[in-house]
Each structure stands twice: as C-alpha cells, then as structure tokens.
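Is this the right way to post structure tokens for a design question? Let me know if I should format differently. Anyway, here goes:
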C-alpha cells in the first residue's frame, strides 16, 4: 500500500511506539509520521535513530496539551491518530498512581477532545483514532478459564489497568456519543528491542549480564501471553487499515507461559551465548556465565507484587477472522532475536538505565 497521508503517533519514542514507527516506515511507502512524545523516563529519542528523517517529525510535547494537539492536526492535515502514549509499568502504578491517571486518563481525553474539535467540526472529515490498550483491563483468569475475548467484562486490578480501562471507556464513549471513528486494540505482554529494562524480559537479560539477582515475584507461576513487538505492530496496523469502526480487537502471541519458564529460557540463552562467544566474558565479567556457571544461580524469589494478576491469555479469533492477523514469531524465535539485540546494543540499555540519557534530554530540550 502506498499513501501520501500523515499520521500522528503518540508515545512514539517509547518501546512499542518506536517499533511501530519503524514498521510503518518499512511497510507503507510515502506515509509521513508526526511523533508526539513527552520523553518521560521511558521515552528515548534515540529509539528513533536511523528512521528516515524526511518522513518523520518529532514533537517534544504532552498529549494533555489539547491546543498543541489541535494545532498539529490542523497544520499537518492529520486525520489519523495512533495512540500509544501512556505510563505503562504496573509496579510504578502501585507506588505512584497519580501519574497514571494524568497520562492515561486525562491524556487520552485530551486527545479525544482535540480530535473531536478538529475532525468533527462542520460536515466532518474522514478520520480514525486507533487506541492501543492492554489485556490487563479484563482482570485475572483462573487456570482453566477461557482466554479473554473482546466481550469479557472489564475487571481491572491495578491502578495501571484501571487507568487504561478508563481510557478505553472514554474512547468508546466518544464513538457512541460524538460519532468519532475509533478502533481499540487490547494486547498481551510485548517483548523485543528498545524495551526499558524494568519489564520482566529485558530486566532479567540485563541482570544476567551484570550478575545481579533475578527477582521472581511470588511463586513465579503467574502466566502471561508473550507477544513479540513486531507481531503487535502488525496487528495494530491491520486494525488501523482494515478494522471496523467502533470495534475492539484483542491481539496476542498464542504463547502462554509461566514467568519461571521465561526466566529459565533467558538464563539458558545467555549461558549459550557466552559459551559460543568468548568476548562476552570480557565485556560482562560479573555474569556467572563468564565463569562457566549457570545464570540460573541468580534466581531469587521475592515478595509478591500487591494484587498480582495470576493469568492473562488472549482469544485471538476475532483478529484472525476479521483482520487476518496471526503472530509470526514463536517464543523461541522472538526470544533469540531479543537476546541478540540486547547483546548488540549494550550502549542503548546502559544509557537509558544510568540516566545519562536524561542528561542528554536536558541538554537538548531543557529540563522538564
Ligand atoms: P513505554 O512506557 O515504553 O512508552 C510510553 C511512551 O509514552 C514514552 O515514550 C513516554 O515518553 C510517552 N508518554 C508518557 N506520557 C506521555 C504524555 N503525557 N504525553 C506524551 N507522551 C507521553 O510504553 P510501551 O510499553 O511502549 O506501551 C505503549 C502502549 O501500549 C501503552 O499505551 C501501553 O499501555 C500499551 N501496552 C503495552 C504493553 C507492553 O507489554 N509493553 C502491552 C499492552 C499494552
Ligand atoms: O499484559 C499487558 C501488560 O504487560 C501491559 O499492559 C503493561 O504495560 C506491561 O508492563 C505488562 O505488564 P506486566 O505486569 O504483566 O509486565 P511485567 O514485565 O512488569 O511483569 C511480567 C510478569 O513478571 C508479571 O507476572 C510480574 C513478573 N515479574 C516482573 C518483574 C519486573 C517478576 O516476577 N519479577 C520482576 O522483576
């Protein structure tokens, strides 16, 4: 498909947003992308390094700035918003819920207000608001419960998932009340390049390399449906391009696993990488693998996350039948690529973790 249109991507300097921009640049010739991102600790301008500068424009700003969003929609003649911007880490929502209500609820409402005022004024323009949400809004499944279908009742259990649920409801309400053309996707746990090392997979990878404990919450038997970020980005694109207005599509990886199995596979992958590449022992001397010892020795069971959801799983049938969506990566293929990416991009994760990237932001954009 070729297009001359310009789309607005919010949160495009974050993990999934940056991968989505790369996906669109590679698959939709001619499309231009305006990126709106506040560059919180999770947003990283370097996540967009190497993207075709002629086709992207980066705006450092907040989705809660409704006037700014209206101006961007008008000035760039934008009729498509893909909304990723959010506070996204469950643990942070437990220690500090306010930021989650600000970004996820007030922020989403600000975007909806801007879209309504620009797109629905007068006779209205063809448009689309694609909202990116999470399977966590559906709550927690028992071991034999069927996976989450789009009709599953909302039962959010953390401040993060409650704030995402509120944003989903606002998107739905703007469709029903004001006839804004919306689609919503609710996906499972993503992993892949550019994920901030506070989420399970990159945290475990980096801790194996540093020789730090691998903290397993509770009994390690909580189950997630792991989705490679490339598959998620393809799913969001399909919903944007083929999804029916007003509909919700659940996107998963068809890949349910308990956390302890994920950690076992990561430690085995790191052990194997050190065994086949002797330079890794020089680069990461604190890793047990540098001494030929298993990284599994770093596993440490810790106190459980408060309100920890036991199991998430996605029923993929609607996205399959209506969008033709299926994940391409198996967990084995996706994890192998992810381990290779983190080993090859040490400077990226060191910079985002040690705060030097924050200094770069302040030098380049001024302190926020
Ligand atoms: P992330 O935390 O890596 O990135 C979020 C981005 O949003 C950052 O670049 C940040 O700077 C930006 N941002 C935050 N508040 C903002 C504001 N007020 N204005 C402008 N920009 C702001 O998140 P992610 O993992 O890439 O998740 C993206 C979206 O996907 C989120 O909406 C999240 O709820 C959803 N989601 C994520 C996952 C996952 O596994 N990571 C799974 C399901 C759904
Ligand atoms: O399901 C989709 C959601 O997946 C997204 O909406 C969220 O934005 C995203 O952060 C993710 O939420 P989780 O809480 O499932 O992801 P996290 O990586 O934080 O944790 C995955 C599992 O691993 C969870 O059961 C908690 C556990 N865990 C996590 C960390 C960080 C540990 O056992 N130890 C850890 O150190």
């Amino acid at each position: 498909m070729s297009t001359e249109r310009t789309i607005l991507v919010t949160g495009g300097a974050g993990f999934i947003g940056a991968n989505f921009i790369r996906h669109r640049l590679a698959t939709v010739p001619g499309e231009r992308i305006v990126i709106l991102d506040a560059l919180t600790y999770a947003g990283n301008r370097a996540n967009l390094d190497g993207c075709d500068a002629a086709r992207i424009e980066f705006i450092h700003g907040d989705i809660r700035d409704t006037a700014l969003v209206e101006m961007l929609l008008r000035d760039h003649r934008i009729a498509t918003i893909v909304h990723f911007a959010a506070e996204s880490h469950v643990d942070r929502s437990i220690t500090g819920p306010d930021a989650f209500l600000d970004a996820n609820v007030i922020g989403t409402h600000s975007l909806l207000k801007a879209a309504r005022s620009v797109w629905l004024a007068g006779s209205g323009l063809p448009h689309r608001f694609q909202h990116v949400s999470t399977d966590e809004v559906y709550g927690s499944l028992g071991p034999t419960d069927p996976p989450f279908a789009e009709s599953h009742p909302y039962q959010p259990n953390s401040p993060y998932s409650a704030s995402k649920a509120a944003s989903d409801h606002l998107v739905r309400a703007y469709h029903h009340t004001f006839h804004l053309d919306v689609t919503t996707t609710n996906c499972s746990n993503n992993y892949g390049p550019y994920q901030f090392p506070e989420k399970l997979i990159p945290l475990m990878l980096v801790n194996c390399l540093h020789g730090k404990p691998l903290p397993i919450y509770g009994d390690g038997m909580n189950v997630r449906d792991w989705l490679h970020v490339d598959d998620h980005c393809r799913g969001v694109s399909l919903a944007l391009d083929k999804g029916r207005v007003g509909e919700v599509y659940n996107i998963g990886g068809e890949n349910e696993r308990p956390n302890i199995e994920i950690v076992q596979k990561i430690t085995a992958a790191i052990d194997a990488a050190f065994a086949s590449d002797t330079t890794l022992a020089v680069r990461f001397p604190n890793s047990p693998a540098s001494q030929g010892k298993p990284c599994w020795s770093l596993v440490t069971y810790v106190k459980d996350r408060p309100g920890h959801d036991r199991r998430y799983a996605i029923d993929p049938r609607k996205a399959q039948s209506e969008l033709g969506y299926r994940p391409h990566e198996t967990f084995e293929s996706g994890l192998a690529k992810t381990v290779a990416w983190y080993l090859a991009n040490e400077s990226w994760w060191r910079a985002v973790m040690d705060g030097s990237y924050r200094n770069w932001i302040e030098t380049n954009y001024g302190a926020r």
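Format looks fine. Someone answered above. Worth noting: The CA atoms of residues 303 and 351 lie 29 Å apart. Residues 98-119 form the longest helix (22 residues).
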